[in-house]
Amino acid sequence: MMHAADLPETVPVFPLPGALLLPRGRLPLHIFEPRYLAMIEDCLKTKHRLIGMIQTREVPGTGEKRLNAIGCAGRVTGFSETEDGRYMITLSGISRFRVKEEVQGFAPYRRCNVDWSGFGRDLGPQEEDAGFQRAEFLSLLNRFFLSLNLSTDWSSLKEAETELLINSLSMLCPFTPEDKQALLEAPSLTTRRETLVTLIEFAMRGGSGEEVMQ
């Protein structure tokens, strides 16, 4: 477990649209671009081994893509190298952060000065969701997965801790980068679960007000 005093002022950032990392979540990544291979190598030399996962947003009318204000840092907790030089890593989510400014320099990858304040809860134990109705939620999830022709291990979902269940589904479900950002910025587990339910219900209506019949 990391403490607030261990968090650095500057982190390398990996802007990967649709890839969501949440505190206490785990995100496997396949690294093959030279600039990100360099990022991993530099990251492994640090004590904290943190990488910031962040979404980008397009500036209307320009085609320019800027970093969103909030991302989530993960610690490299798994690493392997393939015979052709690619890296397979696992990031374990530590804490969200707010971007203060992007650092200009000679590194081939992007780095940001970040502010960790406001996300102290991320460094604590698992969150609880007192209003979570598991049976009702899994029923909705079953209909959603059927609509997408997806399968899953339902016994594991029934037994999973509430935070693990909500956060894993938030990370894995096929939502847009904007939707993923909304899930990331949810201030509590309850809010994230409510946002997740809203996104699932909206997707099942085909993005309209009309329910899609299955």
Automatic annotation (TrEMBL):
Pfam family, one: LON_substr_bdg
SUPFAM superfamilies tied to this protein: PUA domain-like
SMART domains listed in its UniProt record: LON (SM00464)
Gene Ontology biological process: proteolysis
Keyword Protease: yes
Domain of life: Bacteria
PROSITE patterns attached to this UniProt entry: LON_N (PS51787)
Residues annotated as domain Lon N-terminal: 11-204
GO molecular function: peptidase activity
Keywords carried by this UniProt record: Hydrolase, Protease
Entry protein name: ATP-dependent protease
